[in-house]
Amino acid sequence: MAHAKIVAEADLLIATLDSLKQVNSYSLLLSGSCVLLLLFGANPTVQGLALLGFVIGLAQGYFSWRVALDRKLLPLLMKMGIESFDRALAQLFTAKAKQLNQRDLSSRLNGVKGLVRRQVFCFMSQLFISICAFCLFMQPVLF
Question: Using CA atoms, how far apart are residues 62 and 57, in angstroms rounded to an integer?
Fold first, then answer.
């Protein structure tokens, strides 16, 4: 019963990970706008916010890459089982072989959820900072 619940949770998480591709696309657009504000913003505050938005976009990109990797690895983990999956990873990454066998499926799913939360937090922060930078950039025009 508990195993079926974890498998259902993993399937739901995989479906959720598919929808996060759009978040990365929007973050790339925000990063591009931050670069433009960095280049053309005369106000140092605008430039600082734009630089911060760009750096947060880089962090979001990293988390997006990790989430996409987990999206590819989770079905393999479910198909192979934890022991076989860990052996395959241990052959690829011998330095982490001791750490791999200490995590059950539930803790791995929690790790993926943590990555998703970090990615969404970075995107929301980048969105807020980008809007603030754009408003400051447009302030002389608006008032």
Answer: 9
Both tokens of 15, joined, read 């479906």
- Tokens describing residue 6: 């974890």
Question: pLDDT by residue (tens digit) across 22-46?
Answer: 999 999 999 999 999 999 888 899 9
Share of the chain above pLDDT 70, in %: 90
Mean pLDDT, range 58-87, rounded to an integer: 88
Q: How far apart are CA 87 and CA 91, in angstroms?
A: 6
Q: Give the Cα separation of 93 and 87 in Å (integer).
A: 10
pLDDT number for residue 93: 75
Phi, psi of 42 (to 5 degrees): -80, -25
